[in-house]
Design goal:
- With 346 residues, this protein is an alpha+beta fold.
- It has 14 helices and 10 strands.
- Strands 3, 4, 5, 6, 7, 8, 9 and 10 form an 8-stranded mixed sheet that branches. It has a two-stranded parallel sheet with strand order 1-2.
- Helix 2 links the parallel strand 1 and strand 2.
């Protein structure tokens, strides 16, 4: 299909009439979103209004709730949230169904059968390490408790609300629990409690700035964010390590707000994201697009793109938690963080 869509000219015309798309929580260096947004604008001539690039999944859902009756620029048309946020947003009546023309090539396990939400890309939790500060990179979760890593380790979000941080705690717990998903939430809280007591945990949201400045020389974050930082670290020597155990893959999902002020622009955006063109732009940003297997089978993935990703064997152990496992882990971690770990991440 390439850059042509099965969608009618009618959809493009209707979107152009709306003239604008409002997105939220899309930092330009996350998944190559800068290029994705630029590509969409260039292709269709629509304005893209970008709200709060650093928001977490919980904030995105709250933004829909807060703007139910508002058609102004603060109301998001679309969201890109952690997998567990899809079903809850559907249950709360916050999103509307739409099936893109490439729907059949999205794996069934990564989409709502009725089209309310659909996986877009995935990555695994990795250690992003400032090698100018940290001499030896940690190889696995347990290593983070070593004396060498005093005041060094941060999460990339608030584990009470941000999917990336919740998954980081879950992954540590899965490693500590020997792969037992039922124990991952509690084990993850205990791990971070130990890390905090030891003085190795830094309770700030880890970002490229805090990494390069040495305030958080080790950040637990999605591989694609860490790999983008490796490219953009402005001279900082950055190592990206996929841990030896507790390799948790996280799928993010797209959805259209039930109250979208620009519903046709939102649908056109989805068509763009799920076209070969959009999927490969995400891969260029180091995210494994949800249609990756379909693209690879059909020889649509350029070799130079594959060469820049970590070795495939690092991903061989990746665990894709089920929705139930994620929900249980999320509930345990968000509810228990303050009581068990007690470090307010800001």
């Amino acid at each position: 299909m390439g850059s042509a869509f099965a969608q009618s000219q009618d959809l493009i015309d209707a979107a152009k009439k709306e003239g604008q798309l409002t997105v939220i929580a899309l930092p330009h260096d996350w998944c190559g979103y800068g290029d994705v947004i630029a590509g969409f604008k260039a292709k269709y001539g629509l304005q893209v209004n970008e709200l709060n690039p650093d928001a977490g999944s919980g904030d995105e859902v709250e933004a829909i709730k807060a703007n139910k009756g508002n058609t102004g620029p603060q109301a998001p048309d679309v969201i890109d949230v952690g997998l567990s946020f899809g079903p809850t947003a559907k249950k709360d009546g916050l999103i509307q169904p739409y099936k893109v023309s490439t729907w059949a090539s999205i794996p069934d396990t990564a989409k709502d059968a009725d089209g309310y939400w659909y996986g877009d890309y995935y990555g695994v939790l990795a250690f992003e390490v400032n090698k100018d500060v940290v001499k030896e990179s940690p190889k696995d979760w347990a290593d983070l408790l070593k004396d060498d890593y005093a005041n060094s380790v941060a999460l990339a979000g608030d584990p009470r609300t941000a999917n990336q941080a919740i998954q980081g705690v879950y992954a540590a717990g899965l490693s500590a629990a020997g792969g037992d998903a039922a124990k991952a939430g509690a084990a993850g809280l205990k791990f971070f409690s130990d890390l905090n007591k030891k003085g190795n945990f830094v309770p700030v949201v880890g970002k490229i700035a805090s990494l390069t400045q040495g305030a958080t020389p080790i950040i637990v974050r999605w591989d694609y964010n860490a790999l983008a930082d490796r490219d953009n670290g402005k001279g900082t020597n950055i190592d990206v390590v996929v841990p030896a155990s507790g390799v948790v893959a996280g799928v993010y999902v797209q959805a259209i707000s039930a109250f979208a002020p620009h519903p046709n622009a939102a649908k056109l955006w989805m068509e763009y994201l799920y076209s070969d063109e959009g999927q490969l732009l995400w891969l260029k940003g180091y995210c494994h697009p949800i249609r990756f297997n379909d693209l690879a089978t059909n020889k649509k993935v350029p070799a130079d793109l594959l060469a820049k990703l970590p070795p495939a064997e690092a991903y061989a152990k990746a665990v894709f938690p089920t929705l139930d496992e994620q929900a249980a882990g999320k509930a345990a971690i968000t509810a228990g963080w303050d009581g068990v770990v007690g470090a307010a991440v800001k």
